[in-house]
């Protein structure tokens, strides 16, 4: 299943990808979209008899709940290292110059919610690990007894905090050989050493990665940049060329949806959710509200399909001879995929890549390391980064499913317009290939035409304006910087005076962080 896709990745495309060529919507005739009712009535492969349609319907219920959750202060901040070097190859010289690749980090840690304060304070005082906690006082924990399925960035000088809501996942322009190399190396992690009989787990690994790829492609085509209007919006042709035309890619995305939902359900059923304690401060009062929102979100999912197995039966995997070794290899390879994220040149893509790979890694950890009926679940550890990533990954999948249903409506409209021979606005795309209203049978030149002189002039003018704004903001910030500098010095001298300086305390590093 799907393995030809992997091998086809080994050859680089000789011509531009098909989405840059003009395609009539009629060329997407034999896709799941052309027989949507039939397609969505079928059972999702490897699920517990759950159909696409059932997920589509329940997602209508889940969408507002998960949207509310990820907008909560607790779930919207993510901590990561954006500057880590790629551990796999040295020619990681590429970088994304486009401003949509940038990430707005929270530079003043005092603006972070209370829950992050202990660790930022620890960072400043030279404590380079998560604050130690006793079980039950705070869900951030530095001591982990459970095996991890992904690498989580440790806290150090390069740690940044990001508001996910203010840095949405969307089209950035990142592509070409650089992103191709990343995807290729991710799919290459699917080459297990244990022989062909472990086909089940191999397929599962491939489908997981492909489902994540599908979700990323869905988001970037759902929020695609229109160079003319400078607005982000759905681009049907891009979507069809990357996702809509591939039934297997669609199915892999729905499998990931089920997988992450099942992990959330299991977290609740094993009692781990109840045991989680949020840090003191803002969140303690919200704790029970956030927990009951999470429970309410996943509650109806177990009533789908074969209820005794609930969405997906993880116990069918890793059952054959040598399963232990296979599971270990699977885990190590997934950890490698998470490390590949440090090779992504576009910061915005790296951010969302890390959020999602951490979310999937957490889901795998819950599915394969947490036993519902075992007292071991008492020892199961989950950090706040993992919980935040898990919920945000579920949101990504939920938004993907909602977007797919929206694209289906756009597809029907475009088809109807083409049938009538009338024009349709959904067929316009970013690169101006089809920038005139599209009428049936008109073929536009193949290739990627750049923006005009006027666009370039306006873009440059905009850059100059932004540079001036930056200078103005810097002057405005100057008194605050001086104030912070004096305050830090005074605190330092006071601590020295009362003999209370931590041995690793480095005032110069503190200046760097503050400035
Ligand atoms: C971790 C990561 C995050 C990214 N995030 C963003 C982002 O937020 N915004 C953005 O604009 N770009 C993002 N990108 C880039 C984006 O994914 C594409 O690589 C880029 O748009 C170029 O697309 P493409 O058409 O060349 O094919 P790609 O999407 O790069 O795919 C390469 C090849 O993989 C195969 N393939 C494609 N989809 C699947 C699938 N679902 N399952 C199996 N095989 C498949 C096809 O053979 C295809 O030719 C990200 C890339 C990575 C690696």
TrEMBL record:
GO biological process assignments: protein folding in endoplasmic reticulum
Similarity annotation: Belongs to the EROs family.
Requisite cofactors: FAD
Complex formation: May function both as a monomer and a homodimer.
UniProt main location, coarse: endoplasmic reticulum
Listed GO CC annotations: endoplasmic reticulum membrane
UniProt membrane topology term: Peripheral membrane protein
Highest taxon of the lineage: Eukaryota
Residues passing through the membrane, by range: none
This protein's record includes keyword rRNA-binding: no
Active-site residues, record numbering mapped to chain: 346 (nucleophile), 349
Protein name, as recorded: Endoplasmic oxidoreductin-1
Positions of FAD binding: 170, 172, 183, 210, 213, 242
Positions of disulphide bridges: 96-101, 138-150, 346-349
Gene Ontology molecular function terms on file: FAD binding; protein-disulfide reductase activity; thiol oxidase activity
InterPro entries membership: Ero1, ERO1-like_sf
Keyword vocabulary terms for this entry: Disulfide bond, Electron transport, Endoplasmic reticulum, FAD, Flavoprotein, Glycoprotein, Membrane, Oxidoreductase, Redox-active center, Signal, Transport
Compartments (UniProt record): Endoplasmic reticulum membrane
């Amino acid at each position: 299943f799907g393995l030809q896709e992997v091998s086809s990745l080994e050859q680089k495309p000789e011509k531009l990808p098909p989405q840059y060529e003009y395609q009539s919507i009629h060329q997407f005739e034999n896709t799941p979209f052309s027989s949507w009712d039939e397609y969505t009535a079928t059972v999702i492969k490897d699920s517990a008899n759950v159909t696409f349609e059932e997920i589509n319907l329940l997602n209508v219920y889940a969408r507002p709940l998960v949207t509310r959750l990820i907008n909560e202060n607790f779930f919207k901040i993510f901590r990561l290292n954006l500057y880590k070097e790629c551990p796999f190859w040295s020619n990681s010289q590429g970088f994304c110059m486009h401003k949509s690749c940038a990430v707005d980090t929270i530079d003043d840690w005092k603006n972070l919610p209370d829950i992050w304060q202990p660790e930022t304070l620890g960072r400043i005082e030279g404590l380079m690990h998560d604050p130690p906690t006793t079980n039950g006082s705070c869900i951030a924990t530095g001591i982990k007894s459970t095996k991890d399925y992904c690498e989580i960035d440790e806290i150090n000088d390069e740690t940044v905090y990001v508001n996910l809501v203010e840095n949405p996942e969307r089209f950035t322009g990142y592509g070409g050989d650089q992103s191709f190399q990343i995807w290729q190396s991710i799919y290459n992690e699917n080459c297990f050493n244990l022989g062909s009989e472990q086909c089940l787990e191999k397929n599962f690994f491939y489908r997981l990665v492909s489902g994540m790829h599908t979700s990323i492609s869905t988001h970037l085509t759902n929020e695609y940049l229109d160079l003319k209007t400078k607005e982000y919006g759905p681009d049907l042709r891009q979507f069809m060329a990357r996702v809509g035309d591939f039934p297997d890619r669609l199915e892999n995305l729905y499998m990931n949806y089920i997988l992450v939902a099942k992990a959330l359900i299991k977290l609740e059923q094993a009692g781990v959710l109840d045991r989680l304690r949020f840090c003191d401060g803002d969140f303690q009062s919200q704790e029970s509200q956030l927990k009951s929102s999470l429970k309410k979100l996943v509650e109806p999912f177990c009533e789908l399909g074969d209820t005794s197995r609930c969405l997906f039966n993880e116990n069918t995997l890793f059952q054959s001879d040598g399963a232990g070794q296979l599971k270990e290899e699977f885990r190590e390879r997934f950890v490698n995929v998470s490390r590949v994220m440090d090779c992504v040149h576009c910061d915005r893509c790296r951010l969302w890549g890390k959020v999602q790979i951490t979310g999937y890694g957490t889901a795998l950890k819950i599915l394969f390391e947490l036993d519902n009926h075992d007292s071991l679940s008492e020892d199961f550890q989950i950090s706040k980064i993992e919980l935040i990533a898990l919920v945000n990954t579920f949101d990504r999948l939920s938004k993907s499913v909602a977007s797919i249903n929206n694209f289906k409506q756009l597809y029907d409209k475009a088809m109807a317009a083409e049938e009538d021979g009338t024009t349709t606005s959904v067929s316009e795309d970013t690169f101006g290939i089809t920038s005139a209203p599209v009428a049936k049978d008109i073929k536009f030149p193949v290739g990627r035409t750049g923006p005009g002189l006027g666009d370039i002039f306006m873009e440059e003018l905009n850059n100059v304006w932004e540079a001036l704004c930056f200078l103005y903001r810097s002057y405005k910030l100057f008194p605050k910087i001086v104030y912070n500098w004096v305050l830090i010095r005074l605190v330092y001298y006071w601590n020295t005076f009362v003999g209370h300086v931590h041995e690793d305390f480095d005032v110069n590093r503190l200046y760097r962080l503050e400035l």
